[in-house]
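Lab notebook, bench 4. Still working through the backlog of constructs that have no structural model yet. Next entry is a single chain of 557 residues. Request: give me the structure tokens for it.
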Amino acid sequence: MISQTTASHSIKVIGHRNPDTDSICAAIAYSCLKNQIDPKHTYEPCRAGSLNRETEFVLKHFERQVPRMYTDVSPQIRDVDYRRRPGVDGEMSLRQAWMTMRDEQLDTLCVVDEGRLKGLITVQDIATANMNTLDTHILADACTSYKSIIETLNAEVLVGNIEGRSVEGHIVIAAGSSEQMEQVIAKGDIVILANRAEGQLTAIELDAGCIVICAGSKVSRAICMLAEEKNCIILRTDYSTYAAGQMITQAAPIRHYMVSDGLMTFTLNSPVEGATKVMASVRHRYFPVLDNDGTYLGVVSRRNLLNLHKKQLILVDHNEKSQAVEGLEDAEVLEIIDHHRINALETDGPVYFRNVPVGCTCTIVYQMYQENGVEAEPSVAGLMLSAILSDTLMFHSPTCTPADEYAARALADIAGVDLEEYANAMFEAGGDVTGKTADEIFHGDYKVFASRDVRFGVGQGSYMSDRNRKASQALVGPYLETALNKQGLDYIFYMFTDVRTSTTELLMAGKGADQVVVQAFGAKVEDGMALLPGVVSRKKQMIPALMGVIKEFADEK
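Model written out:
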């Protein structure tokens, strides 16, 4: 099992959209090989679409995990070196928050409780709070703890128990006479004064909740005894009366000032492109990053987005951009392992490109196991065997080469299965359409191609029984026109191949599709279907013939 963190930095081995058995099994088998011969990196098998029923059977039979799905490899926040800064407690004082921002060069702190984001506070919020010095009731409004006041003023407790106690009254700076003090001090107030015993005594007698003695002044035993009797806290600080008066409001907790509504956050899956636009519309620089469960992870800034790590990919079983996962242009392709015609996509730099004219990508992967002196474990051998059987229609396809059959029989020995018996079970399971929709069957093994300005799709289903083949045709046939319009294609051709008789019944859609088939195969088209004896390979028989006719028609225009 690959962890979330490891997965985000792994090299992803991925097949084409609408993956078939070869696409999935090649990704898994090649990842296993690369992880053995290149332990410095982590290779993760992935898929660009949903599994078909045949592939589901294969993975279940050999007890292999379904690869992670990636429908888009465009850069996400997970691909950025965001700042993994711990969240702060909402009880943190304004002063401590400002000092943290200063020391860590941040302008935003995230307030977190048990991993969940509660709010944000920015340096602008702190500046605004510090300018609001005329509000003498702010500490009480914010339920400020005496513990926070002690930390802010670097004070010591001379009298009283501060545990669990918070400010209840106004802030009073007692600089006048006792008569003046009587007019401004109320029960529960916090009174800041110096070393005048008369002022200290008056504040206590007026039921002040706390007196703060400044400049490190001494307090008599009598004053302390009276304060204890009246349940008045006495704190002493080395700061002057002026400084203490300026600083005490900075003891207020940041939860009182934080923004908690309408927070702009990103998840690990947030596209970088979208995040860039959001950041440009907001004045603060740092934004919270959450995981998929909403747990706070850190913060990200515009500067972080400049240090982007593109997803690194190895493509298997395809080399055309039209068949590749979305966002490929924003990823880094390292290798291509394929057995199809070369219509290679453009890459930023040189890549390892291995293209061999065999019937299956997994045959190439098996050869690479041999070249590196690595023996595949039985379950991986079973996957490669399944892919070869699927792509070569159990050696009946004209794409099948001696290398494919040799690899399949060797892999069957390693996997410990009877080749013919297993192939029959696999094809039967793959052809079962029970409970499936037309769309699911249609996309089971389907690819889009282009020739000149013409775009067309070709799908294929391989069947061991007439029952499964006819059931699939009944569902897919009426769906072809819908798929044609939805995808904006010129033509769609769908092959229903009987493995036992090496015959394909071809359905088609699109204006002039029947003429293309007649010209390509010399076949008769009746009710939108052509019978093609001996035609079983999409890659070697179907695509080249269609391409030739489509180009010919285009030249005539």
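Notes after review: The radius of gyration is 37 Å. The chain has 22 helices and 22 strands. Flag for follow-up if needed.
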